[in-house]
């Protein structure tokens, strides 16, 4: 079996990679985002039918109440946070892998074992770092998904207004609801993926 080749980041056209990657990621995110709105509303709205019937019911209800725009409630917040999150994730991944490589070089490991160990640790720590940004974005966007588009005074809810409201009522910790659960699920899967 041939050894796994590592990406030579020094020779890679990072600008092209990140621009194309950002474009592709944004397109996929825009196409799938309505499903996140439907899923989130299904989880919090009592009395919705289960399964596909519930999803269709929620989609019809959102479209009737808010039009297509309702299926994208909170999308701006997620879209604005996606790029910094990706930069943090990929930057952390590569930095940790390089740092680990220095420390595992003297352990006399087979090259594939050493690369796997470096990738495993890099994936775990990169996920941990990126979740510090992802979780607050998810909390805000999910609140936007399930609440009315305007407040009692008629002002449109935005990601910033929702974040301010959360901080005012719950403190900064309110932005990190579910942080531990996210770490428990995301960090091991990322470590296993890369390792």
Question: Can you describe this structure?
Answer:
- This protein is mostly helical.
- Helix content is 72%, strand content 0%.
- It is built from 6 helices and no strands.
- It has helices at residues 14-44, 51-66, 75-104, 111-146, 159-170, 179-194.
- Helix 1 (14-44) crosses helix 2 and helix 4 (111-146) packs across helix 5.
- The longest helix has 36 residues, at 111-146.
- The radius of gyration is 20 Å and the shape is elongated.
- 23% of the residues are buried.
Q: What's the mean pLDDT score?
A: 88
Distance between the termini: 17 Å
- What is the overall shape? elongated
Please state the CA-atom Rg, rounded to the nearest Å: 20 Å
Instruction: Spell out the helices and strands N to C.
Output: HHHHHH
Structural class designation: mainly alpha
- Strand element count: 0
Major beta sheet summary: none
Percent of residues in beta strands? under 5%
Number of DSSP helices? 6
Q: Uncertain regions: pLDDT < 50 for 5+ in a row?
A: none
Helical residues, percent: over 70%
Features of the shown structure:
195 residues; single chain; elongated; mainly alpha
Would you spell out the secondary-structure blueprint of this structure?
Elements: H1 14-44, H2 51-66, H3 75-104, H4 111-146, H5 159-170, H6 179-194
Give the gist of this structure.
The protein is mainly α. It contains 6 helices and no strands.
């Amino acid at each position: 079996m041939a050894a796994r080749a590592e990406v030579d980041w020094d020779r890679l056209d990072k600008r092209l990679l990140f621009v194309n990657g950002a474009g592709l990621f944004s397109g996929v995110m825009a196409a799938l985002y309505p499903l996140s709105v439907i899923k989130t509303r299904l989880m919090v709205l009592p009395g919705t039918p289960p399964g596909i019937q519930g999803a269709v019911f929620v989609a019809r209800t959102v479209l009737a109440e808010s039009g297509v725009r309702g299926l994208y409630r909170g999308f701006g917040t997620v879209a604005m946070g996606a790029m910094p999150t990706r930069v943090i994730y990929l930057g952390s991944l590569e930095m940790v892998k390089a740092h680990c490589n220095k420390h595992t070089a003297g352990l006399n490991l087979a090259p594939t074992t050493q690369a796997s160990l470096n990738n495993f640790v890099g994936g775990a720590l990169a996920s941990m770092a990126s979740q510090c940004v992802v979780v607050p974005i998810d909390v805000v966007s999910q609140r936007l998904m399930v609440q009315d588009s305007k407040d009692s005074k008629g002002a449109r809810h935005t990601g910033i207004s929702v974040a301010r409201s959360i901080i005012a009522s719950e403190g900064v910790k309110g932005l990190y609801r579910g942080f531990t659960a996210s770490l428990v699920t995301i960090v091991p899967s990322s470590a296993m993926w890369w390792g």
